[in-house]
Input
Amino acid sequence: MGISSHELHKEFPEYKDRIEELRGNDMKFSEKLTRYSELDQEIEGLEKRGGPISDDKMHRLKTWRAQLKDELYRALTNSN
Output
């Protein structure tokens, strides 16, 4: 399995402007985006280093990242 970044603007390039709009105007979105980015970098770093982490913990981290991405996507596609 390859190591890849899951940065939100790479995952959803069609929402680049919306991401920036929400980042600046929606505190909840901005906080979730920050946590998502930190978590993505943590996972990527662990994968690159082959860090000492159990499969179970890595699975939990990736599940949390996926949940955050789903929440962020819902915010991006919500047309308020």
